[in-house]
Amino acid sequence: MTGLSGTGKSSALAELGRRGYRVVDTDDPGWREYRQHVEPSDELHRGEWLWVEEKITGLLDSDDDRSLFVGGGASNQSKFYDRFNAVVLLTAPADVMLERVTGRAANNYGKSPLERAMILADLAEVEPLLREGCTHELDASRPLVDIVADLIAIASRS
Asked: How much of the chain is in helix, strand and coil states, percent to nearest 5?
C-alpha cells in the first residue's frame, strides 16, 4: 500500500493489525533510510527516502500463512513490486490530506508551511508515478472501515 502523506496508510495498517493481519509500516524506524544526494548539481543537497532493501527482502521471504500488508513510500519501492500480489495506491484530495496531516498526533510531518507545500508538489509530481505502478487505486477520503474492507477484499483475491 502506497500513497502520499495524509492518505491514511498508517491508519489502515493499524486497523488491519488490530484485526490480526500481518502489517509493516515502512515509515517506522529501521525500514527506510534517508540518503543525501551528493551531486554538485543539487544545490539544495536534497536526498531521498529509500527502503532498506535487505530488510524488505527478508520480510518478503518470510511467511506465516497470514496476508501481509506493507505500507509506506520510498524512492526504491518499485524494485519490489513484482514480489507483491497487489500494489494499492491510496489517494485523497489535497484538502483532505492537508487536514489529516494537520490533525495527526503521532507524526509531525506536514505541519510546517514548507512541508505542506512539499505535499502539494508531491500530489502533482509523485502521485502520477505511483499511479503508473499500482494495480489498484482506492479513494481514501472515504471512511477507514471502507478502505480496510477494500484492502482485505483485494488481498483475498490475490
From this structure: 45, 20, 40
Residues 6+ positions from 94 with CB-CB distance below 8 Å? 119, 120, 123
CB of 68 closer than 8 Å to CB of 22: yes
- DSSP one-letter string for 94-147: HHHHHHHHHH-SS--TT-SHHHHHHHHHHHHHTHHHHHHH-SEEEETTS-HHHH
Give me the CATH code for the 2-157 domain, please.
Answer: 3.40.50.300
User: Domain residue spans in the chain?
Assistant: 2-157
Q: From CA 139, how far away is CA 124, in angstroms rounded?
A: 16
DSSP secondary structure letters along 7-18: SSHHHHHHHHHH
pLDDT per position as a tens digit, 99-119 = 999 999 888 899 999 999 999
How high is the pLDDT of residue 39? 63
Q: Which residue has the cell 514480489?
A: 83
pTM of the model: 0.91
